[in-house]
Write a structure and sequence with these properties.
The structure is a homotrimer of 356-residue chains. Chain A has 356 residues and is of the alpha+beta class. Chain A folds into 2 domains: 105 residues, Rieske [2Fe-2S] iron-sulphur domain (Rieske Iron-sulfur Protein, 3-layer Sandwich), CATH 2.102.10; 208 residues, Naphthalene 1,2-dioxygenase Alpha Subunit, Chain A, domain 1. Chain A has 5 helices and 17 strands. In chain A, the strands form 4 sheets. Chain A has a 7-stranded antiparallel β-sheet with strand order 11-17-16-15-14-13-12, covered by helices on one side. Chain A has a 4-stranded antiparallel β-sheet with strand order 5-6-7-8, with no helix packed on it. In chain A, a hairpin with a 2-residue loop joins strand 9 and strand 10. The first copy, chain A, is globular. Chains in contact: A-B, A-C, B-C.
């Protein structure tokens, strides 16, 4: 796998990997690993096997038997050990070859590469960089997704486009009126660019919607009708792996002792699958409302909208893939692209740190 | 895009473009551009957006937003302007970026490449060579297709084979008894090679069928039965883009004042899509007969026959595509291939002129 | 086609051909060539046309017209001659161009490459190495498949994996309990590795199952129930093209004058199609039993089991195909792999002989 530092220009060349290895990336969701289930997932170009051990923790290792190369995910579990379907080679959850059925001893060098994996429900985070450089303190967490005062819904899309196309998409919501005419487009006024700020290595946009009625997606539960309220949206590319959006809604007319602040958050979690495809996990969460039908409506709107993004991003990537090398597509940026361009520099910094 | 001059040998190497840019090529048909319809078509390796303006003329430009690369054909028209579906970038029909919804001013360098396009109904001709070298005087026209004394039918095939395979196909009709046994094969005596002539840059074949009964496709309207008449076929590769076939039928027994000459014409119009695929527009026209059922029968026969050619040409191309580079397929030519070989030289001359 | 000598390591690089040309390979089965039938089959990377002549022998030649490259298998036979569907070029069964319909004489250099082909029913063997080096004495034969005292069933699979993956598969039957749990897995005790021996250029394994009840696949006809008998399995890679397995069953309790020996044989015949795919013909034969339902049951078990192998081998090859060049997949071998590793050296010897 070759990594190329990127400049201002498009980081989407299908021939180059444009993702840092030294980062915790989402590998999947907690609820995927039902009892005994083997999940095979290509992450950062490598096939990874995921399963839950009897102690509840998760194992992650190369999904390729070191013997003759069969994906281990085609085999089965024996307790916490994984058995290859071809000749029954058995590995511990630490990737160590512990049994060859036809002989007494195993060669010592028989070991699969394993990956540090940390569960921060509802997500699983994996480290695929050099062994020993993983720092568990750096794993992200969204504790509110486990907080009983919050409700959330989420989904997973496998998008046939470089993950940076999605990163740029969620940093510039002025595409709402065009891509999401019938979903998010109806929600909000993103007709003007947001304000972009750099917060350390993080890239954020901020936009205020004050003294306005609340958009339907936020209003569904509150049922405030046309009441004029204040809302501040903040979207942040925390790292190449993670984007967090928070809408802070304030009711200026809340009486004393009445609740006045409400939060709505989108998590956008992207993990490269190959140079031209990625996994996208999203979660829409809020700390108000318990209406089941509101939740279902929000999930359905979000699902439809993200499918609209998928269609757009994949059309862009198809054209990129057909372009001759070296990739030098003409590109004109708008003011609203500031955040996306900052995210490219954010990525570049991650990549440079890695090649030191 | 690389262009390689060709020699006597096969010009079909999938790795090389074997088409001149400095030529008017058919881009589509007039009747494709219904009100507001956006047509995206890959021509000479480039994705082109086509639409009809309010004044009735046609716009042709790169089908790729200069902002972030979405095909503009996924957007919509606003009057004569095209709006990108991603962030609403708006372009004039001259490809000039005229509006970014989120800001007041547009960068001046925001321009799409446009292409001269000329309508000669029922066909649209495009120039994709260097700007300023397009000469509208050189655009072909088939005025008889607009003449009320003529009737015609036509179709479009997207053939997964290099366009030169079709050029060679229509220059040597001795394939009729083999490829078109149940369609054109029953029509005509192409058991011997035609006579080939060079007329300036044009390549033609001529074949006379004198004192013979008329083949069914010509006879359908005339209903002459076995009457012995004279027919002269002339097929001409006018350019790499255009092949014109004319059958001139003469009734030697026409009395004084009676009509004695009848014309039947096939237009074969080929435009490369990629190095290994092309667009093929055909039209079958005649200046006699107004029987609707004859027209339908002729169209149906032609459609079936061209599908037979498609099957043959695509089988040849598949084998070419699987051949290792450099392409040096053995090839033995027959006398009947003279025209096809002359067409390769015709193409070579076009290519050499371009690389000067 | 490039040939690379292989070492101990994996010979499956999709970028290299790992098969000798100087060898008789199976091209098909006798019963495929019904009257007038044209079979097109890619063998060792070359498209070959096969058909049966009027004298009952078989013709094999390049499946590509020397004129303009159409597969001749799209044409038809005229007696023993093959007619191209495009322009009617006609070739003798010796590949000589004998007629161009539109001219009197044929160019002398118009000849297709033909291939020596020998029928040893039920198989056809082809030689694709240098002309003149084919030695008919070296063609394999399985005369028992034509012996009325034997019964057999067989099949053909087109496996999307390098043929050496199958060679190694049939040399190490310890995969039975894992891949074939519900088919062969239930049959036999292949829980320990066999003994491997080199017999000249041949590689074999031997394993004895003495004083044991007979496995169902062997017992189906004999109906011996739990009677304790002796069985010796011997599997042999005769060449890269051929693997022969024989189970010799001996009934120690047979009375004087009673039959005591029974043979069951599997033929595993592999022919590379491309660098990453192969043809696999198998035949299961035995010299006892005439129960039709036993034969059907054996054929059905074998078919299901070989489909299980196909699934495994194709999963391995997909991962190989996705691996970056140069191919250096980690590999740990077991004692049971001895035979497979010997087969790689067997192949290497064939390849080296060829490059002298």
């Amino acid at each position: 796998m070759s990594s190329t530092p990127i400049g201002q220009c498009q980081p989407y060349d299908p021939r180059n990997a444009n993702y840092p290895l030294n980062l915790w990336w989402v590998a999947g969701r907690s609820d995927e690993l039902e009892d005994g289930k083997l999940v095979s997932r290509k992450l950062l170009g490598t096939d990874v096997l995921l399963y839950r051990k009897s102690d509840g923790s998760v194992a992650a290792m190369e999904d390729r038997c070191i013997h003759r190369g069969l994906p281990l995910s085609m085999g089965w579990l024996d307790g916490d050990k994984i058995v290859c379907r071809y000749h029954g080679f058995k590995y511990s959850h630490e990737g160590k070859l512990v049994e060859i059925p036809t002989q007494e001893r195993c060669p010592k060098r028989g070991a699969l590469r394993t990956f540090p994996i940390v569960e921060r429900a509802p997500f699983l985070w994996i480290w695929m960089g050099p062994e020993g450089e993983a720092d568990i303190e750096e794993v992200s967490d969204f504790p509110w997704l486990r907080d009983p005062n919050w409700v959330w819904a989420g989904g997973h899309l496998n998008i046939m486009a470089n993950y940076m196309l999605l990163k740029e998409n969620v940093l510039d919501l002025t595409h709402f009126p065009f891509v999401h005419q019938t979903t998010f487009g109806a929600l909000d006024d993103y007709e003007a660019a947001a304000t972009f700020v750099q917060e350390g290595s993080r890239v954020a946009f901020i936009k205020e919607f004050n003294n306005q009625p609340l958009s339907p997606i936020y209003n569904k539960d509150l049922e405030w009708g046309d009441r004029l309220v204040n809302r501040t949206d903040k979207g942040m590319s925390v790292s190449p792996a993670e984007h967090l959006f928070t809408a802070t809604i304030v009711d200026p007319n809340a009486g004393p002792g009445e609740r006045s602040e409400y939060l709505f958050r989108f998590q956008h979690l992207t993990t490269p699958e190959t140079n031209t495809t990625h996994h996208y996990w999203w979660a829409a969460s809020r700390n108000y409302g318990v209406h089941d039908d509101a939740s279902a409506w929000i999930a359905s709107i979000a699902q439809t909208a993200f499918a609209e993004d998928k269609e757009v991003l994949e059309a862009i990537q198809r054209r990129i893939n057909e372009s001759p090398a070296p990739l030098e597509l003409p590109e004109v940026s708008a003011i609203a692209d500031q955040g996306g361009l900052m995210a490219r520099r954010q990525l570049q910094a991650y990549m440079e740190r890695e090649s030191r």
